[in-house]
Design brief:
Elements lengths: L33 H24 L3 H4 L21 E4 L9 H5 L6 E4 L7 E2 H4 L3 H8 L12 H6 L6 E2 L2 E4 L2 E4 L1 E3 L5 E3 L4 E3 L5 E3 H11 L4 H40 L1 H29 L10 H4 L12 H24 L1 H20 L6 H24 L3 E7 L20 H5 L4 E8 L3 H4 L1 H35 L12 H12 L1 H27 L6 H35 L3 H14 L1 H34 L17 H39 L12 H6 L12
Parallel strand pairs: 1-6
Antiparallel strand pairs: 1-2, 3-4, 5-6, 7-8, 9-10, 11-12
Helix pairs in contact: 1-13, 1-16, 1-18, 8-9, 8-12, 8-21, 8-22, 9-11, 9-21, 12-21, 12-22, 13-16, 13-22, 16-17, 16-18, 16-19, 16-22, 18-19, 19-20, 21-22
Length: 709
């Protein structure tokens, strides 16, 4: 039996009074929160201005192509370097300099080449043979005269002194280093080689230089492998997402017809799926027993770019077993303690199924939300890329001997006629990094911050628009006494029109509050990353407390906004009044909020978990080649977890899109249900609008009248 509420306290306002004129969402309403509406429009205009400014100044080629010493892009289509996509270092050993970590640039000449060198060769040796001259010339600066003497060519910095076998790594020619048994490092099957000066160079020195030169591009290497995996598996990922959409749609349709049975089937299936996950992880854990290297701990292994390595140690599978067992036990305990409330929650879900059945267009509204969110995310990402690449190339003086102008900014166009070349004959003016000192570049960080803030604001606004639209449509269903005869035509379209016409300001107000909290959380996360190496434990503790508090605040604001938008959709009042009314209504019925609304949220979450689990397990067996019938068509990947996680994440978003309609329907019906209990008493003059199923569970009835479900 549903617990009875105590008499509402005056501090939470008076209960709703009976109003014979009230028939659901009010149509005669006015504009709300006009100031916030104007502020939002001005902010959007400023956002567009920042985007236009970024697009006029930025150059995404800076993150796509490597840059040579002249600031030119290697492999750029339509230029003289189109057929030279790789970057070659004259002296890779100089990349071991600490300067690399400070300015992200090796202090050596870098040119664009068509291919990497594949053999040892010194300049002195190359000048003795015509064929070797032609081979060596492709790794020298344009216009070099190979008939000159080697010392003259090296003095002018036109060619490298020696070539070593190299491989293409993220469009850069790095030494082809290998590690033999015993940890012996070789390059071209040699542990040492001799340069022009007759000095032996150890392959280990090359390894250190390669690591330093690659300190910035290591993450990019992983990104490139992931990108390759996407190019190989994108059509299978798309098929997996289509399957997830079909499964979600079938589940929703079955829920419409067989809500009670489907809920129990869903609960049992979730327990079975998680149980199978525990079993599979245990089998993997047991199979690695006795295997060489399987007892290495994750801590000893450290961070690896090849994530498949972690699946070869037992500790990883043990961690999976523990996590899945905890999830399984928590779900079972919740089901045991909430078993009586599940029956009431099923009744609410059944009514939500009927509402969605009468307002079928609501199932397609998430497509509009998805399209708008995609537009917002794309605009933010493109603007962020253009802003981050809107710096200008900075050139600095690099030299091998002592020079007073070392690391000073220089102009490559006038460098050869400047005083620097007279005082430092071996100095060169080379590209160092991207930067700038104009007013635009000084405020670039503020533009990035504004881009991030407007991103959060717009995302929250799109989400709020969807919530108000669906709330208005489902409220029209609930307050229709004779269903479906009294339901207005095109409820979703009418609700969307009311939201945009009258309540853009209210939506912007609620979204602004949430965006401010989210930006503060981002700033706290940034500060946390900066303080990770600090020893001040008090600062770390204070920061952790702030992060926890703002996380809780964000969750509370999302909950309050959601219910405030429902009241906005029904009564057409401003955001603050609607938030207050919704909060007081929920506090007057706090017991029902806890035992009913949250139980339905939990059941809907299990539905999403089931869909994600089914699609995730199928994608795991497919991409790992465990389906024998699909072994021949499964793509060969660097990281098979890339498409699996993409399918799992995409499936969750798709399932969330469908179930968000259900969740909004349940929340709206629940708030209307609470108002119905306060407004009406079941008499002939004040009949309940709730269906017979809920009336019977609450042991209430309409005297002399019978509601039509």
């Amino acid at each position: 039996m549903e617990p009875e509420e105590k008499n509402p306290e005056s501090k939470y306002g008076e209960a709703r009074k009976f109003d014979p004129a009230f028939k659901g969402p009010i149509y005669d309403r006015g504009c709300t929160d006009i100031i916030c509406c104007i502020l939002f429009i001005l902010a959007l205009l400023g956002y567009f201005a920042v985007g236009i400014l970024a697009w006029s100044q930025g150059d995404p080629r800076k993150v796509i192509y490597p840059t040579d010493s002249k600031g030119q892009f290697c492999g750029q289509v339509g230029t003289t370097l189109e057929k030279k996509p790789l970057l070659f270092y004259f002296n890779i050993l100089k990349c071991a300099s600490p300067l690399v970590l400070l300015e992200f640039q090796c202090p050596t000449t870098q040119i664009c080449v068509e291919r990497c060198p594949d053999k040892f060769m010194t300049l002195v040796k190359a000048l003795k043979s015509t064929d070797d001259k032609e081979y060596y010339k492709q790794f020298c600066k344009d216009g070099v005269d190979m008939n000159r003497k080697a010392p003259e060519i090296l003095k002018d910095g036109l060619c490298p002194s020696i070539l070593t076998p190299s491989k293409n790594f993220t469009r850069r020619c790095l030494p082809a280093l290998e590690t033999l048994k015993g940890g012996i490092v070789v390059v071209g099957n040699k542990t040492t080689y001799m340069d022009d000066k007759g000095e032996n160079i150890n392959a280990t020195d090359l390894l250190e230089a390669s690591k330093k030169s690659n300190v910035v591009v290591e993450a990019r290497a992983v990104a490139m492998r992931i990108f390759e995996d996407y190019t190989q598996s994108w059509h299978w990922i798309l098929l997996g997402l289509v399957i997830a959409m079909l499964v979600s749609l079938i589940f929703i349709l079955l829920l419409r017809c067989l809500a009670g049975i489907m809920i129990w089937v869903m609960i049992i299936m979730v327990i079975i799926v998680i149980g199978y996950g525990v079993f599979h992880c245990y089998m993997q854990y047991a199979s690695l027993k006795g295997e060489a290297g399987s007892d290495v701990t994750i801590k000893d292994l450290g961070l690896q770019t090849d994530f498949s390595v972690y699946l070869q140690i037992r500790q990883t599978w043990l961690a999976f077993i523990i996590i899945l067992c905890i999830v399984e036990v928590v779900i079972i305990l919740l089901l045991i303690f909430l078993r009586k409330r599940i029956l009431i929650a099923i009744a609410l879900i059944k009514e939500a199924s009927k509402a969605i059945g009468h307002v079928m267009s609501s199932l397609f509204y998430p497509l509009l939300t998805f399209a708008l969110l995609t537009l917002v995310i794309a605009y933010w990402a493109i603007t962020a890329v253009f802003l981050s690449t809107s710096n200008e190339p900075i050139y600095k003086v690099f030299n091998t001997t002592e020079c007073p102008y070392s690391r000073d900014t220089c102009n490559p166009g006038t460098f050869n006629i400047s005083n620097v070349t007279n005082e430092c004959p071996d100095a060169e003016c080379l590209f160092a990094f991207y930067g700038g000192e104009t007013i635009y570049h000084k405020y670039l960080i503020l533009f990035q911050f504004y881009n991030l803030f407007l991103f959060f604001w717009c995302v929250n606004f799109v989400t709020a628009l969807g919530q108000v639209t669906l709330a208005g449509a489902f409220a029209s269903y609930y307050w229709a006494f004779k269903k479906p005869d009294d339901i207005p035509a095109f409820p979703v379209f009418n609700s969307l029109g009311r939201a945009l016409r009258y309540h853009t300001g209210s939506l912007a107000f609620g979204s602004l509050i949430l965006a401010i909290v989210q930006v503060i959380r981002v700033i706290l996360e940034y500060m946390d990353q900066k303080l990770k190496g600090a020893q001040n434990k008090c600062a770390k503790f204070l920061l952790s407390c702030l992060k926890c508090c703002f996380w809780c605040l964000e969750k509370f604001i999302k909950f309050l906004n959601r219910n405030a938008y429902i009241m906005v959709a029904i009564y057409g009042k401003n955001f603050c009044t609607s938030a207050k009314d919704a909060f007081f209504l929920l506090m007057r019925n706090i017991v029902r909020v806890v035992v009913l609304d949250k139980v339905t949220d939990f059941l809907l979450f299990l539905g999403k978990l089931l869909i994600v689990g089914i699609v995730g397990i199928c994608s795991f067996f497919f991409f790992t080649g465990k389906f024998k019938v699909a072994q021949d068509v499964a793509p060969s990947l660097n990281y098979y977890w890339v498409p699996i996680l993409t399918v799992v994440f995409g499936s969750y978003l798709i399932a969330h899109g469908f179930f968000s309609v259900y969740a909004m329907c349940v929340d709206t019906l629940f708030l209307c249900f609470l108002e119905d209990l306060e407004r009406n008493d079941g008499t002939v003059d004040r009949p309940y609008y709730m269906p017979e199923s809920l009336l019977s569970i609450l042991k209430k009835s309409n005297e002399g009248l019978k509601t039509v479900d």
